[in-house]
Design goal:
This protein has 459 residues and is an alpha/beta fold. 45% of the residues lie in helices and 10% in strands.
């Protein structure tokens, strides 16, 4: 039997724990640094402190306890059922061997030290171990595109700014640093927090200024953020959009419609592309935010109209990407990007195979795109379905093409023609012709540029 008992949060050993230690053949403690353990002989227990610096500490501790033969006593800070990942791991492994003793809930002592009445009903409790990401040496995006090493992070972060949070069992410097790195990614620097120690001291600070302590274990308390101060998570901007479009919101925003915002969505996307082209990260951060703002505005208008919600958007895109990446989220093998694309289009084809009419191979290319962009997308999609595309491979092909396109734009300007509209009309005819051939033959194998010429003669 594995008996799990809590040590509480003070320097006083809970009633009965000393007797348990004397009678148990094996005694382990999550950390030997807990102040209440000073009342026990150091030789009467073994701490797991060395394991607590490892990414998979909870599982390693569970392994050690599971391997024990006979009766074992496992002592943990605080209450064993509150925010202890090691207890959850061992109970998840061998629940029939575990006995959890009632313990002191630390909230009363914590609340008294902080000068608050009690924890809020929606308070978040978590173990500091949940802030340590697992190390994975396999290739990432950074492997291929940067000289910097991949920096893992815990996603989603175990706590969010909307409600007060209690991060327990910060047992060493490694855990403290992991907690602060992740908190600073999601919290404003000004967010109020406090370090609580077992002997009753409280050290108030902010998320941006708090320093890792020099003595352990500690608990970190973070006050709930006001909605407008929650600016580093989706919750904050979601609240802003709902206020703008809600009662007593912005008169200008109230006048907008999904259609009236089409132009701004396109403009913001182009401004983001411009920032990318200029490699201007400061501008890119701003422009991506503006694109996101337009997406959230569209979703909130749809919610108020009873059509769909932003949660539906999240669910649709998440479901689609999990389904189309079985080589990441399933057991399908994909050795390279070519195999990934092959799987992608095979899966995509099954998503529409139930329809009576064959879906166009050019589906997904909106003709509202800028004409040259649409032309490129249409040709690339045609190639994926077997069309033979030929062209020059000369070193100066890129410059020659640019000059030819520029000359055509000059020609259009001289005769007061809309070059975008002219090419968009040809794109539409090309698309109709491809759709007709694909519906007739079920493939595009062997078709060449004659397809484009034929498109020019179709009605």
């Amino acid at each position: 039997m594995i008996t799990i008992a809590g040590l509480g949060s003070s320097t006083i050993l809970p009633m009965g724990v000393a007797a348990l230690v004397q009678s148990a053949p094996l005694v382990y403690t999550r950390t030997a640094q807990h102040p209440a353990l000073t009342a026990l002989p150091a030789t009467s227990y073994t701490g797991f402190d060395d394991l607590l610096a490892l990414p998979d500490a909870a599982q390693r501790i569970a392994d050690a306890l599971e391997a024990c033969v006979g009766d074992v006593l496992y002592l943990v800070p605080g209450h064993p059922r509150i925010a202890d990942a090691t207890v959850a791991a061992i109970v998840g492994r061998v629940p029939q061997r575990c006995r959890i003793l009632p313990g002191e809930h630390p909230i009363d002592a914590y609340a008294a030290e902080l000068g608050i009445h009690a924890a809020a009903d929606n308070a978040q409790w978590c173990d500091a171990l949940t802030f340590v990401p697992l190390v994975d040496a396999r290739a990432s995006w950074a492997t291929f595109h940067t000289s910097a090493p991949y920096v893992p992070r815990v996603t989603p972060i175990p706590v969010r700014p909307h409600a007060e949070a209690w991060i327990c069992n910060i047992d060493n410097l490694h855990l403290a640093e992991a907690v602060l790195v992740h908190l600073r990614a999601s919290y404003q620097r000004e967010a109020r927090c406090a370090l609580l120690r077992g002997h009753g001291s409280v050290e108030w600070s902010t998320v941006g200024d708090v320093h890792p302590p020099t003595d352990y274990p500690v608990t970190l308390y973070i006050a709930a953020a006001e909605p407008l101060d929650n600016r580093r998570t989706p919750d904050g901007i979601g609240y802003v959009i709902e206020r703008l479009l809600g009662p007593a919101g912005c008169p200008w925003d109230h006048e907008q419609t999904p259609q009236s915002l089409r132009r701004t969505l396109l403009e913001e996307a182009y401004e983001a592309i411009d920032a990318l082209d200029r490699a201007d990260d400061g501008s890119l951060v701003e422009e991506l935010g503006d694109v996101l703002l337009n997406i959230l505005m569209q979703a909130e208008m749809a919610r108020q109209a009873g059509r769909f919600t932003m949660e539906d958007v999240y669910a649709a895109v998440t479901t689609k990407f999990v389904r189309r990446h079985p080589h990441v989220f399933g057991d399908v093998a994909a050795a390279d990007s070519e195999a990934v694309l092959k799987n992608w289009y095979a899966i995509k084809a099954t998503e529409t195979s139930h329809t009576a009419t064959p879906k166009s191979p050019l589906a997904g290319v909106p003709l509202a795109l800028p004409a040259l962009t649409a032309t490129s997308a249409l040709i690339n999609k045609s190639k994926r379905y077997g069309m033979v595309i030929t062209g020059t491979a000369e070193a100066t092909a890129h410059e020659t093409l640019g000059a030819q396109l520029f000359a055509l734009a000059v020609h259009a300007a001289q005769y007061n023609l809309d070059a975008e509209a002219a090419l968009r009309e040809v794109n539409a005819r090309y698309r109709r012709r491809v759709d007709m051939l694909y519906a007739r033959d079920g493939h595009l194998n062997g078709q060449t540029e004659e397809l484009w010429r034929d498109a020019d003669t179709d009605a």
